[in-house]
Amino acid sequence: MSRPGRTYTYDRVQRGFHWLMAALIVAALGLGIYAAWQVPGTSPRRELLDIHKSLGLTVLLLLPLRFVYRLVAGEPAYRAPPSRSAHAAATLAHLTLYALMLLLPLSGYVYSAAGGYGLPWFGVFSFPRLVPIDKALSQAGYGAHYWIGWGLGLVLGLHLLAVAWHAWVRRDEVMGRMWPRRGAGGDEASA
């Protein structure tokens, strides 16, 4: 049962971070996979990789802002709290997603910077090279980037399966917590 004045959805800022970063990550993963099938050193591979890097570095810049905001704002209450084990599993899954969202662009940065490749941000500027040009370091960055990318894809797939399970099998409120609510109990009631 909902209590007056209680918010059961994430606020607009947290939802904005969630959906913006989800779009950036899906686009970056898709472009990275597509670019991998293109001939190295040719167009459109170079352009696709520039956009891929720009998206990944944007995620890297947004992540600390999102994380700090989440720590400050917290999470909304549940109308019907999940079991301890379900809450622990969700917490572990979210921490794993945060770790992968950090490690994937960092490893891509190391791969590009150590390999002497450009670090553009949508053609506006280039990120500084903070690591020396080093072929072995670049190859290690590439290997990490490749496997972390597939790991993130797997965890995102599991995340989507969990969302579907909550929405269509359990029919609980979990999915609705990341959607704007209209009416009683949501943070958008007065909007």
Automatic annotation (TrEMBL):
<keyword id="KW-1003">Cell membrane</keyword>
<feature type="transmembrane region" description="Helical">
    <location>
        <begin position="90"/>
        <end position="111"/>
    </location>
</feature>
<feature type="transmembrane region" description="Helical">
    <location>
        <begin position="51"/>
        <end position="69"/>
    </location>
</feature>
<feature type="transmembrane region" description="Helical">
    <location>
        <begin position="147"/>
        <end position="168"/>
    </location>
</feature>
<keyword id="KW-0249">Electron transport</keyword>
<dbReference type="GO" id="GO:0009055">
    <property type="term" value="F:electron transfer activity"/>
</dbReference>
<dbReference type="GO" id="GO:0046872">
    <property type="term" value="F:metal ion binding"/>
</dbReference>
<keyword id="KW-1133">Transmembrane helix</keyword>
<keyword id="KW-0472">Membrane</keyword>
<dbReference type="InterPro" id="IPR011577">
    <property type="entry name" value="Cyt_b561_bac/Ni-Hgenase"/>
</dbReference>
<keyword id="KW-0479">Metal-binding</keyword>
<protein>
    <submittedName>
        <fullName>Cytochrome b561</fullName>
    </submittedName>
</protein>
<comment type="similarity">
    <text>Belongs to the cytochrome b561 family.</text>
</comment>
<dbReference type="Pfam" id="PF01292">
    <property type="entry name" value="Ni_hydr_CYTB"/>
</dbReference>
<dbReference type="InterPro" id="IPR016174">
    <property type="entry name" value="Di-haem_cyt_TM"/>
</dbReference>
<dbReference type="InterPro" id="IPR052168">
    <property type="entry name" value="Cytochrome_b561_oxidase"/>
</dbReference>
<feature type="domain" description="Cytochrome b561 bacterial/Ni-hydrogenase">
    <location>
        <begin position="10"/>
        <end position="180"/>
    </location>
</feature>
<dbReference type="GO" id="GO:0005886">
    <property type="term" value="C:plasma membrane"/>
</dbReference>
<keyword id="KW-0408">Iron</keyword>
<dbReference type="GO" id="GO:0022904">
    <property type="term" value="P:respiratory electron transport chain"/>
</dbReference>
<keyword id="KW-0813">Transport</keyword>
<dbReference type="GO" id="GO:0020037">
    <property type="term" value="F:heme binding"/>
</dbReference>
<keyword id="KW-0349">Heme</keyword>
<keyword id="KW-0812">Transmembrane</keyword>
<feature type="transmembrane region" description="Helical">
    <location>
        <begin position="20"/>
        <end position="39"/>
    </location>
</feature>
